[in-house]
TrEMBL record:
Key words, A-Z: Transferase
Molecular function, one GO term: transferase activity
Name assigned to this protein: Glycosyl transferase
Organism placement in taxonomy: Bacteria, Bacillati, Bacillota, Clostridia, Lachnospirales
Record organism: Anaerocolumna chitinilytica
Domain Glycosyltransferase 2-like, first and last residues per copy: 5-116
Superkingdom field: Bacteria
CDD domains membership: Beta4Glucosyltransferase
Length: 374
């Protein structure tokens, strides 16, 4: 059986840290907490779980803090979590089993990161992260923001899922944006990955023109990870739509097809583009096209799961309703309702479309009867 050190960096997480630590208590063999300046009860709460609590003076560098936490690890493998991450009971059991059965020759364990859930707890947004690494190989974190590790094979793609979500939602922060802009002010180099995430921060702060320029710069480097390239096309299109440059937005979406086979997330954006133009025939084409696509099985990038099933089904229903084909609209909405039986939108649509189809059938029957009588 392998042993695991949990290494965390935290700050002012009194509302989240207990849930996180409870979910791994008794599974990990060591808990290391690096605090970057808490002023609440975070450290006190952590003290009930471990005595390995260390202070780190914040220097606007997440990688530096994570590497500092890794330096204290003593077990075979190091697992990282953020304070607002946790394991559901089924994933806790999977981690216990992994400890018992894992080949010690594995260098890196990838785990799904579920960062979006619907009201029923179904995962709507996820991607994979390098989550657990062999301590002896001394892998290091890179980048001051949106940090990552360069690891080496053998890599295990685990079915363990880390769930993310704050118990108490914080107000939007400009911390990450300030880190990037301080680097630029100090004439420090931004890697292609840094440019990509800087662009995302600009977009999230409604600085769409600047964000578009940075996304274009990132794509022009031709050095990005394929999944980041696809995401950049998607985000760039959103920026251009906000700037009322519709054709450029559509061109960005089609540009994503250069990097890989069409993704449902992109095709949904194309469908919505034509819906906004009231071109429901073309919109329906793209939403139906999604239903022919196969969700990538070996994809570590961003996946919006509803875009591969529920969304195209319910939007097909909307499009065919607008086109007056109520029978076809009802067919798609029925499928959407099977995907999400608790969807209030699909339930409302179902009643509306059933009435439309019934009314249409009655009207047709009445017309036929009139023709016969004549």
């Amino acid at each position: 059986m392998v042993s695991i050190s949990l290494a965390m960096i935290v700050k002012d997480e009194e509302n989240n840290i207990k849930r996180c630590l409870d979910s791994v208590l008794g599974v990990v063999d060591e808990i290391i907490i690096v605090d970057t300046g808490s002023t609440d009860q975070t450290k006190k709460i952590c003290s009930f779980y471990t005595d390995k609590i260390y202070d780190f003076k914040w220097i606007d560098d997440f990688s530096a803090a994570r590497n500092f936490s890794y330096d204290f690890a003593t077990m075979d493998y190091i697992l990282w979590l953020d304070a607002d991450d946790y394991l559901l009971p089924e994933d806790r059991e999977k981690l216990i089993k992994l400890k018992e059965t894992m080949d010690p020759g594995i260098n890196t364990v990838m785990m799904k990161y579920a960062t979006g859930l619907d009201l029923q707890g179904n995962v709507t947004f996820s991607y994979y992260r390098e989550r657990m690494t062999k301590r002896a190989l001394k892998f290091r974190w890179n980048e001051p923001v949106h940090e990552y590790m360069l690891t080496i094979e053998p890599i295990l793609e685990s079915d363990i899922c880390i769930t993310h979500g704050k118990i108490q939602t914080d107000k939007s922060s400009d911390r990450n944006l300030q880190i990037y802009e301080n680097k630029i002010k100090n004439k420090e180099f931004l890697s292609p990955r840094g440019v990509f995430y800087y662009a995302r921060e600009l977009k999230d702060h409604d600085r769409f023109l600047e964000a578009a320029g940075q996304f274009e710069l990132f794509l022009d480097t031709d050095m990005g990870w394929v999944e980041d390239n696809i995401s950049a096309c998607s985000e760039l299109a959103k920026c251009y739509l906000m700037l009322n440059q519709d054709k450029r937005a559509l061109a960005c979406l089609f540009k994503s097809f250069i990097y890989s086979t069409p993704r449902a997330e992109i095709c949904c954006q194309i469908g919505y583009y034509y819906q906004e133009k009231n071109d429901y025939k073309t919109a329906a084409y793209w939403f139906e096209f999604i239903l022919t696509l196969k969700k990538p099985e070996k994809c570590w990038g961003f996946l919006q799961h509803d875009c591969w099933s529920y969304i195209p089904l319910i939007e097909c229903a909307v499009c065919y309703d607008r086109l007056g084909n109520y029978k076809k609209a009802l067919k798609f909405n029925t499928r959407a309702l099977k995907e999400k039986p608790d969807s209030l939108s699909a339930q409302k649509n179902q009643r509306y479309l059933q009435d439309k189809v019934t009314s249409q059938q009655y009207k047709k029957k009445s017309q036929n009867q009139k023709i016969d009588s004549d």
